[in-house]
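input
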Amino acid sequence: MSDDNATALLEVRSVSKAFPGVRALTDVDLRLYPGEVLAVLGENGAGKSTLMKILAGIQAPDIGQILLDGRPVQIESVRAAGDLGIALIHQELNLADNLDVGANLFLGREPRYPLGLIRRREIDRRSAEVLQQVGLALPPRTLVGSLPIGKQQLVEIAKALSVNARILIMDEPTSSLSNREAETLFQVVKGLRQRGVSIIYISHRLGEVTKLADRVTVLRDGRNAGELARHEIDHDRMVRLMVGRDIAQFYARRNHSTGSLALEAHEVPTSAFPQHRSSFSVRSGEIVGLAGLVGAGRTELLRVLFGVDRTQGGRIFVGGKRCPLRSPKDAISAGIALVPEDRKAAGLIVQMSVRHNLSLAAVRRHRRVGGLLNRSHERQLANEMIQRLKIRTPHDSQVVRYLSGGNQQKVVLGKWLALRPRVLLMDEPTRGIDVGAKQEIYQLMEQLAAEGVAILFVSSEMEEILGMADRVLVMHEGCLQGELHRDQLSEESIMRLATGGQTVAQVA
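output
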């Protein structure tokens, strides 16, 4: 860990980087000490990813200097970064599911005999050694595709350690992990720190940062915004540096009256738990949270309500009218919209422009006689949504993949809001986005509820459920275990139901 007299293992001095239309980094400085966990924080678009890609040899800085052990270095490629002992573990894991663990650890650098044959026994021996360092007790010939995501994350860390990495860059390492898997990862991080490995830790989950970080560096708008020593790290200070202001009212909930029943489900099963049937309702202007542990069936229930999965029984009503939802087209016609859990896989066409994504769901409304697309109507709609949702993009023709996660999420929302839905289903609406963007999403949810939209949202973040929901429906192993009204909400009451405990109130 750092002290005033320590020499930095890694130092970034006045690094800048620009892309067409965007200045990603301006005179950024960063220091990392031996055996230190340094958290790098910032809103989406603050420059964190660009800086990490520069350190990992994926991109080159326009100007600035990088020093390792006090000496200037050029990191011209990923291989060059690896040779220097720097490894980046991406948020999306980079493993070959069809190969075993050992083959993944040494892929592309397999030890070989003089005639070129792979020395498999040596791979197994060396793999067992590095797996032990991350606490994975499994045979090196275990197929990676058979492992849960938490163990795959540890395999990625082992892969980095197998090349003798001294600096690990971990980008949102717990975004897809259960609480138990995340705790295992935290123990591994602490063990690596004790062995002298330095870690740059990027996370939007500030509770993790408070647990793990020795120091915090914050970027805002591509510049250094501040730094916190270990004794200064707390939630409010981190948020203040990230967004440049105090967030007195982070959750935008206001009391307002609800309207008539907007969505009703009677005895509806899901594909994951066909033996269990769920009954519940959501009123216009109401925000209802759907809580439960990972695998409880929350996403599967939303998929049924949006017609992605065919329901094998039960009845669904929208605005008092029964709606057989055989496809998403049926759901859209009934006034239901779904913001999916994985925006890149199911919510966006990332290689298309902001304008085309925003108008995609309403494309039929922008056709001229004869079926041709009315470009002026499409552009007008897109720019209305860009302004309403404050989507940060240089222009409506910007390719969506180049937007930050928070702005991508706004594009997904804008696509559906263009249809003026009665019912908005949201699956993990703030996953992988920064604190400032989260608050903007919460404000939008509040605004939509005030306009009479019924919102049913899934979240694995307890603070989000407690902060935003008028009511909470709690699922356990495919069953709606209970219902909690706002005055009954607490982390304890939700977890009691989520783990199969006593029903607090009958789900209507």
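quick obs: The chain has 17 helices and 20 strands.
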